[in-house]
Amino acid sequence: MPSENRLALTLLFREYCSLCRKMRNALLPYQAEYGFDLEIIDVDSHPQLEEKYNELVPVLLHGHTEICHWFLDEPKLQAFLHACRQS
After folding, report:
1. CB-based burial of residue 80 (10 Å sphere; 0-12 exposed, 13-18 middle, 19+ buried)?
2. What is the reported pTM?
3. With contact defined as beta carbons under 8 Å apart, do 73 and 67 qualify?
4. Alpha carbon distance 19, 8 (integer Å)
5. Nearest Cα to 72, choosing from 10, 12, 23?
6. What is the CATH number of domain 17-86?
7. If you average pLDDT over residues 49-72, what whole number do you get?
8. Which residues of 9-44 are buried (b: 16+ CB within 10 A; e: fewer)?
9. Is the separation of the CB atoms in 58 and 26 below 8 Å?
10. What's the gap between Cα 50 and its chain centre?
11. What is the pLDDT of residues 61-82, one digit of tens each?
């Protein structure tokens, strides 16, 4: 469960998806450095999410805002995390 004052990101995930595992693993160093919470949601367990994001999974979100999909866009994530740290 996310902490109240910490940044929370969501990873839409599928267990059988190798891209999903790669993105989750690539996020670990960023999570250690920036201290954000990461909620992992099995997209196949949520029909609305599956319908919306089916072909894009894995998808990294902040709230309803997509940061990236398929592969971790490290420059975009770093810019996002840096901006959050500044505010």
Report:
1. buried
2. 0.91
3. yes
4. 21
5. 23
6. 3.40.30.10
7. 96
8. bbbbbbeebeebeebbeebeebeeebebebeeeebb
9. no
10. 15
11. 999 999 999 999 999 999 999 9
